[in-house]
Specification:
It is built from seven helices and eight strands, in the order ααααββαβαβββαββ. By secondary structure, the chain is α+β, with helices and mostly antiparallel strands.
């Protein structure tokens, strides 16, 4: 009976060590398993900043977590130190979390940029709509042909506007093929400023539709019979006449063109008030 009691008292749970004895060294299989798990986790960490690869390689950390957990359990069963398995598990947890955090940050930033871009587009659309509405009102209130208006200290008159074949007669030959169709406007200009001015450098000419679409005279590929560039510098009190042409889309029919307007503005400061003339009486 004493012997039985001694044997019963000496029995210990599996994996435990006697008090005062050293833990056995880490078995090679435990160490190899932990290293494999740690390496897989480190690969995931190394690529966590790559948007292309981080979520693809995060599965390596998940597999590595299984290896690290296995190493931890094997070390516990043989009574050796569990630190290698624990370290592998920790590395793999970081390898799982880091790519997810980086991806979430990138997605959040991308959404912010998309929202900012949408807001800018909405603001731009609103501004364009407001500008088109303002131009449309100015077209409706355009002055009659032949009336004089002051632009950049120059008295300007738009005396006639022609479309189609009539406009081509105002152009010097050979007439190049337009992208759309030609519109020509005859203008008279008188310099009221004390100093000399060159209308070609100081005045801008546009055709504006009732909807606010604007077509600049500088886009016209043809040369008129009286080019504005030939006017040159006008001294105080001097006058000159010229023909300005526009290349506008072919889809603009005669009704649209006849309800449009010729805008003359300060070429160097478009924010200054502009003058508008109707394209038809």
């Amino acid at each position: 009976m004493p012997a039985a009691r001694e044997n019963a008292g000496s029995s210990r749970p599996s994996g435990s060590t006697r008090p005062g004895t050293l833990r056995p060294g880490t078995p090679r299989r435990v160490l190899i398993t932990a290293v494999i798990g740690a390496v897989l986790g480190l690969v995931s960490i190394a690529f966590c900043l790559s948007i292309v690869w981080n979520l693809r390689l995060v599965w390596l950390a998940v597999i590595g977590l299984a290896f690290g957990g296995a190493a931890w359990v094997m070390a516990a069963l043989v009574g050796s130190r569990k630190r290698w398995g624990m370290l592998a598990v920790l590395v793999c947890l970081v390898g799982i979390v880091a790519p997810l955090v980086v991806t979430a940050g990138v997605v959040k930033e991308a959404r912010g940029l998309a929202q900012a871009q949408e807001s800018q587009q909405a603001d731009s659309t609103y501004e364009q709509s407001a500008a088109a509405s303002t131009l449309g009102a100015a077209v409706n209130d355009a002055a009659a042909l032949g009336s004089s208006q002051l632009v950049e200290e120059q008295a300007v008159e738009v005396t006639a506007v022609s479309f189609g074949d009539a406009a081509r007669k105002e152009l010097a030959k050979p007439v190049p093929k337009p992208d759309g169709q030609y519109v020509a406007a005859r203008v008279n200009i008188s310099n009221t400023a004390d100093e000399a001015q060159d209308p070609a450098l100081t005045l801008g000419f546009d055709l504006v539709t009732p909807g606010g679409d604007t077509y600049d005279a500088t886009s016209c590929p043809a040369t008129t019979t009286k080019p504005l560039l030939d006017v040159g510098s006008l001294a105080n009190g001097r006058s000159a006449s010229a023909v300005v042409c526009f290349d506008v889309p072919a889809k603009l029919n005669k009704d649209t063109l006849s309800t449009s307007a010729i805008r003359v503005s300060d070429a160097n400061d478009p924010e200054q008030p502009s003058a508008f003339w109707a394209t038809a009486d």
